[in-house]
Design goal:
Elements (H helix, E strand, L loop, with lengths): L1 H42 L7 H7 L12 H8 L4 H4 L4 H11 L1
Helix pairs in contact: 1-2, 1-3, 1-5
Length: 101
Amino acid sequence: MKRLMILPLSLMLSATSVAAQSEKEVDCGYQADVAGAVQQARLDGVAERDVREAIEAGNPSWPDRYSNAIPVFAAQIYQIKKRDLKKIDLRAEWMTTCMTN
């Protein structure tokens, strides 16, 4: 009987950790999408002051609250020279960084 009680508890704990990991992956994915969108806007020649409006005009798939991060990403990304920006995938880099923190 004790074994039966332990098994459901272990399954619940396992499911909880999977759900938490999944939530983190979703959150990091949205953040990475924002970073990638800002990178693409920079490469497309969108002025930094117009980047949020330009990205939002494309109806991004992330929840609205993630658009608040656009100016934060833009401040950093717009300091990178375009020739250097073309060589990196900021979306992938941000996803890796976010998931390891």
